[in-house]
Every structure is written in structure tokens, then in C-alpha cells.
Amino acid sequence: MTADTRKPAEIEAEIALERARLGRDLDVLQNRLTVDGLMEEVKLQVRGQIDEVTAQLRGQVGIVTRDVSVVMRDQIATASETVSRTAQKNPWPFAVIGLGLAWLAISAVTPERAPRSKKPRIGMAPVKPATRPEVHHYDSSPADMAAAQLEEDADVWADQALSAQARPVPAYDADPLWARDDQDPNPRRR
């Protein structure tokens, strides 16, 4: 046994402090093990990892940007040398391109001309403008009512005739329906 020179009041005070510290530690552990505490801890870890990845990407983007700018500068210099050499050897394509660009610039600056008259082109049949049918106004006399009904019937008949032209003609059957024998298993064909 060791010789303990502390007084019982001091030992009790130490025990009370230790209990309070253990109580705080238990509260902290309890809060960390709740759903909210675990979510907060995961959020902090994810934020830390995101910050690390962001810092790495920023460094890599800087390196890639520097490399791309060097390569682009070299490519532009090479392309400009190639274009100038080609223009010196064969200037005609560049002259035509220049004329086209000049024409485009002039047409953008000049005001619009009056529209050209629409003349029928050779080989195109002239188109006859459609005429609107004449609308008749009838009163309530029997003759006018009959005329209006005839006009409506004529429109229906005309529509039916036009739609019949679009449908194929059914095959001709020599035996009309009223002359057929439905009981005959072998109908005669003429």
C-alpha cells in the first residue's frame, strides 16, 4: 500500500471531478452515437475530403491549363506558317475567299432593293388562283328554302364524288347480290 497523505475531503473532491468529467464524456459519446451526431460527423468527413479533392483539382487544372496554352501557342504558330506558305504558293483560293467576304460585307451594308416581280419560270405551269364560291342569301320563302337545300345537297354530292376518286374502284362482280344462291357451295363464275 502506498502512503496517501490526502485528506478525505480532497479525495471526495477528486472523485466528484472525475465523475463530472466521465459524465461529460458519456454525454459527448451519446450525442455522437445519435443519428444527428453520426450525420454531423459524416458531413464533416465528407467536407474535408471534398476540400482535399478541390485543392488537388485546382492544382491539376493549373498544370493542364499551362500545358494546353503552350500546345495551342505552338499549333497556332504552325498553322499561321502553313497558311502563309500555302498562300504564297497558290494565292487564288485566298483571293476567292476574300472576294466572297467582301461581297458578304457589302451586301450587309447596302439597303434592301425592291422585291423582284414574280414571273413564272420556264417549265412551270401557271397557277390559277382559287375562286371562292359565291354565297347565296336566301329568305324563308319555299322556293328559296328549296334552293338552299339543293345547294347543300350539291356540296355533299361533290364532296362524295371527290372522295370516291381517291378510293380504288371495287372489283366487278357479274352476279349481283340479289341473284346469288347463298346455299350453293360452288358458286358459278361466268
UniProtKB/TrEMBL annotation:
Source domain of life: Bacteria
Annotated region (Disordered), positions in chain: 114-143, 167-190
Protein name as it appears in the record: DUF3618 domain-containing protein
Family matches, as InterPro entries: DUF3618
Listed Basic and acidic residues bias regions: 178-190
